[in-house]
Structure formats: C-alpha cells, structure tokens
Amino acid sequence: MKREFAVIGLGRFGGSICRELSSEGMEVLAIDTEEDKVNEFKNIASHAVIADATDEKVLKELGIRNIDHVIVAIGDNIQASILTTLMLKELGIKKITVKAQNDYHEKVLNKIGADQVVHPERDMGKRIAHSIISNNILDH
Ligand code: ATP
Where is the RCK N-terminal domain positioned along the sequence (predicted)? Predict the structure, then answer.
C-alpha cells in the first residue's frame, strides 16, 4: 500500500529522503521556501510546493493533516524547526521525524513530542565507527 509522506526542507538530508521515498513509489509532498529547491523536486516528488512551514495557515491549506508521516529537515534555522514540529504535533500528525542540529535542539524536540529525532552526521559517525571495529575484529 502506498503511504503518504511530506518532507519539509529540501537540503542534502531532506532531499535525499525525498528522492528515496519517491523512488520506492511513495507519495511525497516536498516543501521548501526556496523556489530553486522546489523546482529541483518537481519531477521527483508527487507534489512540490514553495511554502513556509512555520505558517500554520499554509500547513492547513496544504492538507498536511491527512499525511501519515512528516519529516522536518529544516537546516540551521532551529527556531523554524521547533515551531514547525510543534504545529505539526498540534495538528495531530501521527508520525514526525525531525533532524536535530545539536543536543539542545534534540532535547527540545523530544520534549515537544517529536516521534523520531535524528542527528545524521553523529548517527552515521557512530555507525561507521562500529563497522570499522567489527571489520577490524574479522581481520584479526
Ligand atoms: P544538509 O544540506 O546537509 O541537509 P541542512 O540540513 O543544514 O544541510 P539546509 O541545506 O540548510 O539543510 O537545507 C534546509 C532546507 O530547509 C533549505 O532548503 C531551506 O530553504 C529549507 N527551509 C528553511 N526554513 C524553512 C521553512 N520555514 N519552511 C520550509 N523550508 C524551509
């Protein structure tokens, strides 16, 4: 069954999620404030729109309420990321995944009810460190 996703913020991280979900046949609504980014995803995502996700009215107009899982991949603007997450939570989104910039950001996101908080650089660093250790064990 096709599932519906929305990706807010189409930087390297959000963009990569959007591409993968779309290539797996999922319905994806891609959102960014930058026209160039949105144009890049016009032929990849099911829908790509220029919008500011911190605007509650805009989120409602986009019908975000009907989406199963929203990924917030807003980069450096921690305030916008927190505000967007809070509004998605208030709108009753079932699953919210958010990219955290630092530990403080992560703590706030957990507190306001983000279902999954990811820290891609740190998480990937950990994963690679563990894979280096296991490969070393196998080599010896
Ligand atoms: P990376 O490219 O490594 O993923 P990043 O996570 O810091 O880095 P950015 O390149 O900063 O990501 O991308 C974040 C994206 O989020 C940008 O394309 C930016 O335009 C978008 N963005 C920022 N604020 C908003 C907002 N309020 N609503 C929608 N999109 C936003």
Answer: 2-118
CB of 76 within 6 A of ligand 1: the answer is yes
Beta strands in 44-105 (DSSP E): 47-50, 69-72, 95-99
The verdict on the CB of residue 29 being under 6 Å from ligand 1 is no
- 8 Rama sector, left if φ>0, alpha if ψ -120 to 50, beta otherwise: beta
Token digits of residue 114: 């983000």
Atom of ligand 1 nearest to the CA of 52: 28
Joined together, the tokens standing for residue 67 give: 């989406």
Q: Global pTM?
A: 0.93
Q: Residue 3: which H helix or E strand, with range?
A: none
Query: DSSP label at 100?
Result: -
pLDDT tens digit at each of 140 positions of the chain: 678 999 999 999 999 999 999 999 999 999 999 999 999 999 999 999 999 999 999 999 999 999 999 999 998 999 999 999 999 999 999 999 999 999 999 999 999 999 999 999 999 999 999 999 988 877 76
